[in-house]
Amino acid sequence: MSSDSNSTLHIELPEGRVALAPLFGPQDAHRRVIEKRLGIRMAGRGQQLQISGPSDRLPFAERVVGELLDLVRSGAPLFLQDIQQAISVLQGDGEVELKTLRGRNLLVTHDRRRITPKSSNQGKYLDEMARCDVVFAVGPAGTGKTYLAMAAAVAALKARDVERIILTRPAVEAGERLGFLPGTLTEKVNPYLQPLYDALFDLVGLDQTGQLVDQGVVEVAPLAFMRGRTLNRAFVILDEAQNTTREQMRMFLTRLGHQSRAIITGDITQTDLPSRQQSGLVHATRILEGVEGIGVVRLTPVDVVRHPLVQAIVRAYERDDEGQ
Asked: Among the four residues 45, 159, 264, 301, which has the most C-beta atoms within 10 Å?
């Protein structure tokens, strides 16, 4: 049969509309995205789902729909972003099972959302955070590097595995020079640390974030403030690590004390260091990968979990970088 000949696939659905409604989405929004991405057509007929299109596209379409139906049957909510993400993940990994992936519950947030990995690499990230005391997560914007690290930190705090969470990042591009900014030291620093607060707000809520910060259980500080300290029983997250120098990275990694864990996140394509200065993140992952107890996870555009356009934007910039 030629690759451009059309066929129709029939999938029996004992649940009927109970399964079709979340699969097709509100006003059939999910169905339209699936059809556009896969180049097929879908229609529900009673307890049967019909998928029509080029014969060579139907096997993958059947897999995508089957995986999404498994999610629906497991009780997982489906949003438009989940559909886009699922298709990208399944295109990049022939072995992954979405139900198994989404069944891994890292944390339940203050508003009862379940934080789960949404791609194979995010699943590996969770594995490395469970296995290693130091983990480097490298990848483009929107891949969940900081958010999943924050969720793991909150989970460790709730389980009493650690006594405090310390969140840090280089305060400004490379140099941490704050003097030119108006206001008190806190007012100078806060704009650079706001993304860390935002993730914490989303996970535990505004009120509890304030309480944890006031009690000193959560500390948010510029990287320069880590010098000279020893951090015991702490979960430490260094964000935007691509903007650390080799010396700063070495300083940070040697702060870890007893029963402490560190997650270092960054995007090496967005380094703001002077062109002649090597990123501490690039250097550290090169010399430390393979050291027992240290994990390195590399995330890709497939793992982007923000607005669907973010994945397309990341890929476009990558193609342009390669062209240059």
From this structure: 264
pLDDT tens per residue, range 243-281: 999 999 999 999 999 999 999 999 998 888 887 888 999
Residues counted in the chain: 324
In 32-143, which ranges are E strands? 41-45, 48-54, 107-108, 114-115, 134-138
Q: Are strands 114-115 and 107-108 parallel, antiparallel or unpaired?
A: antiparallel
pLDDT band at 152; cut points 50, 70, 90: very high
Tens digit of pLDDT for each residue in 49-100?
Answer: 999 999 999 999 999 999 999 988 888 888 888 888 888 888 877 778 888 8
35-42 average pLDDT score? 94
**Residues 268 and 199 sit within 8 Å (Cβ to Cβ):** no
Q: Are 237 and 148 in contact (CB under 8 A)?
A: no
160: DSSP letter: T
Tell me how far CA of residue 304 lies from CA of 187, 233, 299, 310, 312, in angstroms. Answer: 32, 31, 9, 7, 10
Cα–Cα distances in angstroms (integers) from residue 298 to residues 89, 94, 184, 303, in the given order = 15, 19, 38, 10
The model carries a pTM of 0.80
The rounded radius of gyration (Å) of the Cα atoms in the chain is: 22
* Cα–Cα distance list, 254 to 226, 227, 241, 293 (Å): 10, 10, 15, 14
Report the alpha-carbon distance of residue 285 to residue 136 in Å, rounded.
Answer: 7
* Structural domains for the chain: 6-102 (3.30.1370.10), 107-323 (3.40.50.300)
Find out whether 61 and 9 touch, Cβ atoms under 8 Å. yes
